Fold this sequence. Notes:
By secondary structure, the protein is of the alpha+beta class.
Amino acid sequence: MCLIIAAWNAHRDYPLIVAANRDEHFARPTAAAHWWPDAPHLLAGRDLVARGTWLGITCDGRFAALTNYRDPHLRRDDAPSRGLLVRECLESTVSVGETLEGIAARSPGYAPFNLLAADAHGLGIHESASGTTRMLEPGIHALSNHLLGTPWPKLRQAKTRFETALQAPEREDAFLRLLRDDTPAPDEELPETGVGVEWERLLSPVFVRAPGYGTRSSTLLRMRADATVDFIEWSWDAAGEPVGEVRERFALA
């Protein structure tokens, strides 16, 4: 994932709402969200190269999602896939806090990442670049390719629009509009992450379109207080046009 907005116990009828975009190279083979044959309790898209995922949820309501931390100086081509850490979170049988602490002990062996995870008792994050692991308070949390809450223009904009959408969370159109926003940031507000100003411009919108790279999918996950989950994934081609949609509604086990 390259953008995640999560509302944790911020609405009385929805303990968890997540709106997220996955940015990736279009040449990388990917399977749309599905219940995995080798892990039937797990609903997620799948990276068909390393067999991990970027975002998923289980039938008992365990959630996890990951973003890369953008710094080309910290890139590691020899490291294990970070997407396998999402699966590890989803399949763990201990608390989210314990799971993240266990991953934190091994995270220096991976390229830098941020890992969000939730269960019935809490939402937590591990930021490998800062080495911190913590549980989060109820509220709206915004994450992109830096530390949680770093005020990049895309995050400020997406969080504001998410807050508006949260006023009528049963409607998906407002969430989809915020995830499809391809407005670039002004040059004077661009972050400096070491990729050069041209790529900073291309990566600055919520919905990314760049040569060979961009927003591949958008996800809206809504967990209701009545223990039902709505999961919607929209897939996009290199021109930003829709090429698929997955909808799942299920009762928590």
